[in-house]
Amino acid sequence: MPVPVIMPKFELAQETGKILRWLKREGDPVVKGEAILEVETDKVAMEVEAPASGILAGIRAGPGEVIPIGQPIAYILLPGETPADVEAASAGPTPRATPLAERIAQAHGVDLSAVRGSGPGGRVTKADVEAALAAVPEGKVRAVPAARRLARELGVDLRAVVGTGPGGRIQSEDVQRAAAGVPERMPTPAVRRRVPLAGMRRAIAERMLRSVREAPQFAVSVDVGMDRALSLVDDLSAWSAREGGPRVTLTALLVKACAWALQRHPALNAALEGEEIVEWAEVNIGVAVAVGEGLVVPVVRGAERRGVLEIARSLEELTARAREGRLRAEDVQGGTFTLSNLGMYGVDRFTALLNPPQAAILAVGRVARRPAIGEGDAVVVRLIATLTLTADHRIVDGAQAARFLEDLRQALEHPGILLG
């Protein structure tokens, strides 16, 4: 039976992918693992690899077409198979709704058979289910699902709220104003422009909203002396440049130090899955990278097994692919911990939101000269950075977070211990 090439799912909330271009043509031989097309999601463009070796056949969609995840977009003919076998393989029924739409419908008791789909082939999407939910009256009140949830959380009677959305529909902002006792209609400043919340910005908004709503988050901070860490980075960078190696950055050393500390504190290298806390055997550290109007988080896999130079090389490659829109699925999947460094933008300290479902994220501020107490209580000037750890309180307690930060501080103030 021909092997289907399906539209893959790269992100948790992804429902569709847009085909950018085919790298192989109908009838071309392909090898398993070889890139055969490029697909664009809300965040990045990625390559899709051949699931088997054989002949590419039955291409179902061309550049620019938007396809639901899980739907076949082509087939790989195995030895002895013909194009006629593709028709037999593709004769099965197409799913009625996307997986995300099904989950939302099930959670809210929506009958999918009564929802008109706007996706390819009439498939029901998340937007269709949300529109159906918004159309269901609660008394005589029209409100978007998010506003209904917020009203229940804040104890706001929707019948007393004036909606400012299309057709008078109540939005989350209307509920927030009502809860705060602010008049529903207020003078607004002149508008310079309106930018649709779409693409990468929408994906980030949905992910961070989920982070805040689902995870009780707390943050702890520590000031770390960075003199020796920066000296080590300078030495490694100079040596690597002479040897034609990668550019070594402080971020590379931070990744190594985090991996070392996470091995000592596995409770932070974890995630909550249903009723279980899962501690991962491998340390895969995602590093936030700014791109265009948003950010992506490529992952350095197996960071606990790598040296600083190898991590630097991996970061150099991942960052270049991220800014050129060439990230692959495996580049952004499987992260177990996230590092966000805004020091290069002059930020002294900040608190990052969790990257669900991970247990923790580290925010790194800039390295600056600050007064500190030295030997004999003398005031000295040292290079110091503030590190802030945000953690999911369902998984991690304050004492665990504090012990992790203390070990991380020791690793950065005495980086020689990372060689042990």
Describe this structure in words.
Helix 2 runs parallel beside helix 3 and helix 4 packs parallel to helix 5. 31% of the residues lie in helices and 23% in strands. The protein contains eleven helices and 19 strands. A hairpin with a 4-residue loop joins strand 4 and strand 5. By secondary structure, the chain is α+β, with helices and mostly antiparallel strands. The mean pLDDT is 85.
Q: Which terms summarize this structure?
A:
single chain, 420 residues, four-stranded antiparallel sheet, 11 helices, 23% strand
Terminal CA distance reads 52 Å
Number of helices: 11
Poorly predicted residue ranges: none
What sequence of helices (H) and strands (E) makes up the elements?
A: EEEEEEEEHHHHHHEHHEEEEEEHHEEEEH
Shape: globular
In angstroms, what is the radius of gyration?
Answer: 25 Å
- Helix percent reads 25-40%
Q: Which structural category do the helix and sheet elements fall into?
A: alpha+beta
Task: Describe what is shown at a glance.
Helices cover 31% and strands 23% of the residues. The chain has 420 residues and is an alpha+beta fold.
Protein topology:
Layout: E1 3-6, E2 16-22, E3 29-30, E4 35-40, E5 45-49, E6 54-57, E7 66-68, E8 72-77, H1 83-89, H2 99-108, H3 126-135, H4 145-154, H5 172-180, H6 199-214, E9 217-225, H7 227-242, H8 250-264, E10 270-273, E11 276-279, E12 285-287, E13 289-291, E14 294-296, E15 299-300, H9 308-323, H10 329-332, E16 337-341, E17 360-364, E18 368-373, E19 379-392, H11 398-413
Parallel strand pairs: 12-16, 16-17
Antiparallel strand pairs: 1-8, 2-4, 2-7, 3-6, 4-5, 6-8, 9-19, 10-11, 12-15, 13-14, 17-19, 18-19
